[in-house]
Structure formats: structure tokens, C-alpha cells
Amino acid sequence: MSDKPLQDTQSTRASSESEVSAAEVKKQIAEAAEELVLEPIPEQPIDPSRLAIEERLPEDIDINDPELYFNRELSHLQFNARVLEQAMDENHPVLNRLMFLCIFSSNMDEFFEIRVAGLKSQIEYSREKNGPDGMHPKKVLSLISEHAHKLVRRQYRILNDIIFPKLAEENIRFIRRSLWSEKQAAWVKRYFRDNVLPIISPIGLDPAHPFPRLANKTFNFVVELEGRDAFGRENGLAIVPAPSSLPRLVKLPDDVCEGGDNMVFLSSIIHAHADQLFPGMTVKGCFQFRLTRNADLEVDSDDIGLDLAGALRTELQSRHYGSSVRLEIADNCPVHIVDSLLAQFDLSNEDLYRIDGPVNLSRLLAVLELVDRPSLMYAPFSPGLPNKLAKSGGIFESIRQRDYLLMHPFESFSPVIDMLSEAAKDPNVVAIRQTLYRTGARSPIANALVEAARNGKEVTVVIELRARFDEAENLALASRLQDAGAIVVYGVVRHKTHAKMILIVRREAAELTRYVHLGTGNYHAGNARLYTDYSFLTCDKEIGDDVHRVFQQLTGMSKELKVKKLLHAPFTLRDRLLEMIAKEAENAAKGEPARIIIKVNSLTEQRLVQALYKASQAGVKIDLIVRGICTLRPGIKGVSSNIRVRSVIGRFLEHTRVYYFYNNRTPLVYLSSADGMDRNLNNRVEVAFPIQDFKLARRVKKELEYYLNDNTQSWILQSDGSYQLAKPRKGEYRSAQRALLNDLADNAR
């Protein structure tokens, strides 16, 4: 393993050995930052010949032309690049910048586990399918490899040349083995003897010890050995899996350091004492590596029978051992060892990532628990809460008076929890129904549902077991709710239930009243502090009836049930969106003002993209706020010259989905659980709900304008596929998230 990235620059050595002045350290950091800033984010490549579409007359352009669409996977990779760039943004505190590096690592892991793995599977089973962009999966994989390698190199340069030195300036140090003092080396030796050696299991490779089956993303070492062991074996290689129970980052005690927070990596500890794992042998080299596997669950709906949960439990057991998709290994590992591992895992050089630092940087998030430096992170804030919801008359009384719209995390998620908790205790509540996609088995939401069931309420919960990477947690949640007496169903086999709905039925006087929560995000209190999402609370009769009908479809079996106000995927949502877009185009063609604003996480559904192209051709002014994947190509004369696309990346993860249509001066505003993707509109159970109250609709429009005016965290999509960060003029800094914090957080209304 290479220790090189762990404070291997002059600037970090200076903090430990006083070789250069603090001023020189800062100068070196600034020079490194300047060099990195000048390095462009990889663009989505477009063949120059494809740009010829800009020279055609509008009537000669076919909106099915592949030149009008960006590749989905490459657009996804560009989103990860924008996340990585947050680590370079000096407006973020330094520990938050480190967090963005870690988030980038986690995002890239999932990208390889799901998206790259999916492309490889297409090729392996001869199921290649070109998308609207016309690009063959083999070409896409080649471009992914090219750009992913650039991004990973950039990530480690930022870590080594910028973040580690800046943390060292704050006396937070990641100490290289070569810089350990005698006291530190002695302490590490004891730590290895007492905490690592007893549980680590080195595996020598020979005919009796075949290459171990390594689970997805586990941390391992390949060790090159010389000599014969006690049995006369002389193979030369061994594998050392690092137990998952061991922390990847270890804080040194204060009594062996000279102030500050000082840490060492587990990789350094094992590397320094690898010889103790092979007594009598000579360790020629020790190199860390990590294998990424296909982690997408494929539960065959035809083989499920009547037990989706059982089928999923079986599939979960094999998730950790899917086909290999990526090998990360220390950059100083010899070629012959690398080639041996590539052959072992059936990978090519395109799948190899030589790492200039510790593999799996997401484990660096442990720093936040090991150091107490609130000044190096964003200051905490108190989410706002409307006055009337905070009153003691009870949440049902408040909702009966008016509809409420909350925007998390700027406004509190507690009213949603309070509504369920109050319902669990309220003797007048007779039934609760809820969809759950991502929430903990021991979360406040789960606790309230368990309490309600134990109190004799009719509790029905639709749990989407197949929420990616939350399957095991959802299985545990389902078991807990069933044990409490709740009715648990798993939605529809071929359509994930992604809608976010709560329906509470309460007896009031001589009638039953329905109280509803609809949201754009998940019922997870932790996510509600990190993601931007809307919550809508109402007792509108027609919306209550609609939600009741959607639950009927989910829990029972029936023909499509007509709903009055909700838009319901996979039945009406896509078609109604297309109709509303077409109406704006019709109004524009008549010379009427026309406007569309859509804010989603991703936009890929081809019919939706084509409808937006047609609206642009008719003269509709269209603003798209697309956080992640966008296959629509803006700025093409005669096709999309009226379309602007921006991606906002900041302190919070943008997650709200909003569809706004000017509608000839009578705006239509819908919030939704659905993105503009094929899977959301055609293959999932989703809802979009109207904001009918004029004041609330006006508020949503105002908040959309914050994003459209943002000039500090907005990346503008260009017609060539690149993204350009908006550049504010001096004194004209506008941040949507900062404006929302100022408007909504800790501000009783």
C-alpha cells in the first residue's frame, strides 16, 4: 500500500516538521488550488459532426434525432463531477468540503455498482440497447472509463494538495508512517497487537488455499512474500482481508502527540506490521485494494410466487458477490500483481483505478465523529415552524383550518411525525394508511405506527421492499409492524411504490374526516435535515378521496380508479404532464404569454423531452432545474433555444419535484414524488398533487425563482454537454439555499 497521500506534500510535512513557514504553506495550497481550478470538469463528449444539427433549418430537424439527446450515464457522471467540485468551493467550511469528497466516493460506488454493472450485463448477455442518444453500451463504457479516471485523479489531488493541508493548518492531521514519532510508533504497535492481530486472517495463496471470495467493496491487501513457510510452501502472494469491525481511521491519544487531532489510517497500521502476519517470511510489498461488484438486485417477478419478501431475502444474500466491475488498488502496486488481480476478477485495464491514497474515501466521514470542531462546519440552525401548527390545540385542528406547506430542511419535519404520533393516541382516529420507501425500522415514524397498531387502530402500511440499498432495513421494518398487528403489503410486484402518502381517518361528530400528508421526499427524519423536500398537509375532501382510491389500488385489486385532483403514475401523471406542456405550446402559438418551470432530480423520459422541445419551438419560455441527469440538449436553434437548464448543488441535496405551468395567467402548480424519468412516469406508483391555495402556489413560484436567480451554486448546462458554474458579479451574490434559510428557518410565522 502507498502511504504517499497521507500528508505527502511539503505543506503537510511543514505542519508536522516545521520545514517551511505557515505563509509558504498557504502559498503552496493556493497554487495547488489555482492549478486545480484551471483543470476543467470533463464534458460529455459530442462528435463534432453531430454539431451540424445547429446548422439545419428547424423544419429539417427530427426531434427523434440522437444528436438532440445526451447520454444518460455520462450525464449521471457529470452530476458526480459537480458534487466533487464542492470540495473546491471555499464558501464551504473545510470539514464540509471533506464531506463532499466522501459523498463523491459514495456516489461513484453506486454508479459502478448499478449503472456500469448494468451496461456490462447488457454486453455479457447480448442485450445491448442504444438509448435515445444512439450510443452503443460499449462506447458508453469506454467514455465512462475515460472520464471516471480523470475524476478520480482529480479527487485525490484535491484531497492531497488542498484538503489535507488545510486540515493540517487547523491541527487536524493524518500522519504518515514515515512521520510517526517513537511514542506514536510504539502506541500503534500496541494497538495492532491488541486490536488487529487477534482478528485478522491472512490467506496464503496455494492449491489448498484458493483465492478467497471477496465481498463487494470490502477492504483488502495483497501481500508479496519471499521465502518458504514451515510446510515448505513458496507461493509468493497472500490476501489479507481487513475485518469490517475495525475502524478505518484511528485517533492517536493526546499523550503521544503535540496538540491537535492526530489520526492514522488502518491501512498504515496493517502496512507497518504486515511482517507480523507472516512470521519468518519476508514481506516485499503490501498493497491495499478494493473490488466493486454488481449490487443491483434482480428479483424475477415470474419466480416470486406469493412471497416477495422471501424472494428478496434470498437475493440479498447474493448481493455482496455479484460480478466484478471495478478494481481500485494502491498506485505503487507492481504491474505483475495488478495483472494477476485483474485476471482473477475478469476485469480489463479500463476497469482498473490506481489510487493515490486510501481506498474508499467515504470512510473519512469518521473524522466528523473523531474531532470536535464545530467552527470548521456549517453552523446548525433551527428549522422553522408555522405558528398555528405550533399551537397546543392539536395538529388536526390546525389542518382543519387551512392547508400547510412545509419545505424541509428549512422548515421542521416534526409536524409530520406529530401528526402520526397524535393519531396513534387519539381515540377518534380509526385508521391510518401510509406508504414507506426509505425509513428506519426504529425511526419515529415507525414507532408511531407501531403504537397506533397496538392501540387498536386499523394500520395499513405499504412498504416498498425494493428501495435500493434499503431492502434489508425495510424487511426489518415490515416484520416489526406485523408483530405489532399492522397490515403490511408490498405494493405492486412490477411497479415500485414511490408515492409518499399518509391517510388518517378520524371520527368527528357524525362523520369521518380524512387527513392527508403528501410529500416529495421520504419519511426519514434524518434525510429531512439533509434533503430539500416539500410536505403538504390537508383535509381537502377530494384529495382525501383520491388518496383513499390510490391505497385501494395498492392494497386490493381493482380496475383503474378515477381520481379527481391527484395525478397518478403509471396511469395519468405522464399524459397530464404532456397535456399541460402542449397547452403552453398552444398558448404561445396564439401569442399568449407561456411559461414552464420544472424542478426535478433527473429528466430522461423521451416523450417528456420531446414535448418540451415542441413547446420551445412554439415559443414557450422553459426553465428546467435538474439536479442530476438531464438528457435534453438546450440551446439548439429551432429546437431548444427557449430552454435553459441549470443544476443547483449546495449544502443540502436538492430533492423537491415541482411542475409549474403559467396556464394563461391561471398557474397550475404540482408537487410530486416523481422525477421526469421513464421509471417514475411509466413503471412506478407515483403521485403529483396540486397546490390550490393561491398563497401557497405563489410561495412555490417565489421559491422556484430563488433557484432561477441563484448565481453561486448553479451550474448552467451548455448545448455541447458541458456545465458552467454561474459567476456572480461583485456584491451580487444570490444563493437559493441561503435565501430559503433566511426566509424559513427559525422563523415562526
Description:
Strands 14, 18, 19, 20, 21, 23, 24, 25, 26 and 27 form a ten-stranded mixed β-sheet that branches. With 749 residues, the protein is an alpha/beta fold. 37% of the residues lie in helices and 19% in strands. Strand 23 and strand 24 form a beta hairpin. The model is unreliable at 1-19 and 45-50 (pLDDT under 50). Helix 1 runs antiparallel to helix 2 (22-38) and helix 20 (694-709) runs antiparallel to helix 21.
Keywords:
27 strands, 8-stranded mixed β-sheet, 749 residues, 21 helices, 10-stranded mixed β-sheet, single chain, alpha/beta, disordered N terminus
Topology, please?
Layout (H helix, E strand, L loop, with lengths): L9 H8 L4 H17 L33 H14 L8 H31 L12 H33 L2 E3 L7 H15 L6 E2 L14 E8 L10 E5 L7 E3 L9 E5 H7 L9 E12 L14 H12 L4 E7 L4 H11 L6 E4 L11 H4 L16 H4 L4 H7 L2 E5 L5 H12 L3 E8 L7 H11 L3 E6 L7 H14 L2 E3 L6 E2 L3 E8 L2 E9 L11 E8 L2 H15 L11 E3 L3 H17 L5 E6 L5 H13 L2 E6 L16 E6 L4 E2 L3 E4 L6 E5 L5 H5 L1 E7 L3 H16 L4 E4 L5 E3 L10 H9 L5
Parallel strand pairs: 1-6, 8-9, 11-12, 12-13, 14-25, 17-22, 19-20, 20-21
Antiparallel strand pairs: 2-4, 3-4, 3-7, 5-6, 7-8, 10-17, 11-15, 15-16, 16-17, 18-25, 19-23, 21-26, 23-24, 24-25, 26-27
Helix pairs in contact: 1-2, 1-5, 2-5, 3-4, 3-5, 4-5, 13-14, 14-15, 17-18, 20-21
